[in-house]
Amino acid sequence: MTTSPTGSPADRAADLQDERLIRTEGVRGAVLAFQQRVRGGDLGSLPVIIGLVVIWVIFQILNPNFLSSNNLVNLTLQCAAVGTISIGIVLVLLLGQIDLSVGSVSGLAAAILGVGLTQLGWPVLLAVVVALVVGAAIGFLYGLLFTRFGVPSFVITLAGLLAFLGLQLKVLGPNGSINLPYDSWIVQFAQATFLPPWAAYGLAVLAAAAVFYTDIRRASRRRKAGLSTGAISVTLIKSIALLVLLVIVVAYLATDRGLGAMFLLFVVLVVVMNFFLTRTKWGRSVFAVGGSVEAARRAGIRVNRVYISVFILTSTFAALGGLLASARLTSASLSSGGGDTNLNAIAAAVIGGTSLFGGRGSAYSALLGILVIQSISNGLTLLNLDSSIRYMITGAVLLLAVIIDSLSRRSRASHGQA
Amino acid sequence: MTTESAVAPTAGSVREPVLSLKGVSKGFGAVRALTDINLDIHAGEVVAIVGDNGAGKSTLVKILAGVHPQDSGTITFDGQVVSIPTPTASRALGIATVFQDLALCDNLDVVSNLFLGREITHGTLDEEEMEQRAWSLLRQLSAKIPSVRIAVASLSGGQRQTVAIARSLIGEPSVVILDEPTAALGVAQTAEVLNLIERLRERGLGVLIISHNMADVQAVADRVVVLRLGRNNGDFHVADVSYEEIISAITGATDNVVTRRASAHAVAAAADAHDAAAPPVGRATPDAVGPTLGTATVDEPLPDNATGADTPDDGSKEIR
């Protein structure tokens, strides 16, 4: 299954023939390779996972309710809305651009949902679709402005932040606050839909099996192509670890209400986006444009289309996040999408490990980052701390994440991997 | 490393050139960047284009790469008159251009860079197929790249140049244009790239290199085409031309900065040897060569200004 490192070059897989390659096999090799990556500044998700553990331990010491299943279920539900917005931010950051208007766009989507449901008597589905289409149209507008006129995305979306906040107020009308009907399915979905334990366990098994299957399939394809394959033991350990982790999470959440449908939707969106980013031509071109626009253009990638598609996705995710947030709060108001929504979404992507400099990151950083942000917010609320302190601490964590990003960039440069 | 004296496949114009330019001109506003350029490239031949700054080398490359179309003149590719309005058209014809800045994505690995814009997909990316083909291509070029799954940022200058050249071969081109392929490289890496160019020739490709480095040109090229102020100023077989002859074609005069410097050294040496005061005749400067070899040569007698005279030609900015 694995090739012997001592064999003559001809026996080795096509990618292992260079004699300069230092290679160890099996589990030990995987661990060593991981250590080397970290030392070389390719930190991946490591800092944020360590940070999350530290945050959880500290809050658990300060308040024993923090890690209670009840609170963790709340935490997952709090994550979903802003986390969804953050997926879009990851995409736009991968291009080395920014969207500062996601808060306003999410607020506008909430306003459309509220007005559509209550004043216009639309069915829920129509209101949702209209809100998402408006979000997509806004992204398309940004994309056109950016590609036609070359205005920096920072400025376009800053203008959008104000303009769509205004539009949100206009749509809401003089009342300024609309309560959503509690029995509409979107509110039920966001507030009261939890997976029955058997379904949650089934999903956990399915996820682990899917990881195992894709790894095995990749290994067999690589073997067919004459390339080296990782040890099957590593694949097994990885899948079993994932299974154990997921089962523990599901079992613990099941002692309270269980796994929320809204959180599941968020996680599924992350996984799907990760698939598109890593396994499709479009995803490859997003990374290429983020790495070097000129190189991408010369390689024949239609750079403008990539920009426009990403701006559309970002605004659409923002609109979806706004819908989820308003459904969870059963209201659309002047403050929907206001306050810290914008910065939390951007901070989550950066804290999760997506580089502000473009070309580096992963959809999973939205998930990890929002867990960190909401854990801090949730923990500080449990401690009855004022929102003033919450803002300051979140700001400090964001700064720390950006510093880690810059430092790891420098470390990559000094290890010749910038 | 030195060129085989056999310039076999190019012996005369018996065979059709794969790429042929006839009377190509290009102007930028009031500036004539190229005037009546003629150029033939045969399969299995390395042609070097040399010339001073502003001679029009980069403009010529950009015309072939589809960055700017020519104003007049014809380009013939494989016997067909073609127009090259866009970079995509150039690539579709089978002309691959490696620009001086290489245009690689530092954050992507070697495989992704090689197949960028031409990924092999079956719904999703077929990484295995791409990696396998990347290896076989790099092996054919005897490229010294330890792993194709490392980011291009961590490769050396020569390895990056290799990746850029290998990438140009993915689309199975028949002509490869290399703009200053050795400009930023060390001695060993330059040698690697020159080997690579020879391997391209062995594969039967027509190779056009732009270079300022006469040693590289003489080491690897079969023919040298000299441009001066946007015109042809000589077309030499490397085997039967001297360094001085190329230099005088480039600068447009037998008396120029380079020869005067050489003769000054010669005089100094002579003065050291025997304190006789021989009149400073240029050292071994054949008067007959140089401009006369060119077609339609313009010869302003401005030896002092040999480089300065090129400045009006700012339309063809050199890529640096």
UniProtKB/TrEMBL annotation, chain A:
Give the UniProt entry's GO cellular component terms: plasma membrane
The Gene Ontology terms for molecular function here are: transmembrane transporter activity
Q: Where are the transmembrane segments?
A: 43-63, 75-95, 100-118, 124-144, 151-169, 189-213, 225-253, 259-277, 306-329, 366-383
Location in the cell reads: Cell membrane
What sections of the sequence does the record tag as coiled-coil? none
Alphabetically list the UniProt keywords. Cell inner membrane, Cell membrane, Membrane, Sugar transport, Transmembrane, Transmembrane helix, Transport
Q: What is its main location?
A: membrane
Lineage top rank: taxon: Bacteria
Tell me if Metal-binding is a UniProt keyword of this record: no
* A UniProt-annotated Pfam family: BPD_transp_2
Q: What's the protein's topology in the membrane?
A: Multi-pass membrane protein
State what protein this is by name: Xylose transport system permease protein XylH
Reported function: Part of the binding-protein-dependent transport system for D-xylose. Probably responsible for the translocation of the substrate across the membrane.
Which PANTHER family has this protein been placed in?
Answer: ABC TRANSPORTER PERMEASE PROTEIN YPHD-RELATED-RELATED, XYLOSE TRANSPORT SYSTEM PERMEASE PROTEIN XYLH
UniProtKB/TrEMBL annotation, chain B:
Q: Name one GO molecular function term.
A: ATP binding
Identify one Pfam family in the record.
ABC_tran
Keyword Cell inner membrane on this protein?
no
Q: Which CDD domains match?
A: ABC_Carb_Monos_I
UniProt xrefs under PROSITE patterns: ABC_TRANSPORTER_2
Keyword Nucleotide-binding in annotation: yes
InterPro entries per UniProt: AAA+_ATPase, ABC_carbohydrate_import_ATPase, ABC_transporter-like_ATP-bd, P-loop_NTPase
Span list, region Disordered:
274-320
The organism sits in which domain of life? Bacteria
Give every ABC transporter domain span.
Answer: 19-254
- Per UniProt, which keywords does this protein have? ATP-binding, Nucleotide-binding
Question: Which interval of the chain is the signal sequence?
Answer: none
Q: What is this protein called?
A: ABC transporter ATP-binding protein
Name the lineage. Bacteria, Bacillati, Actinomycetota, Actinomycetes, Micrococcales
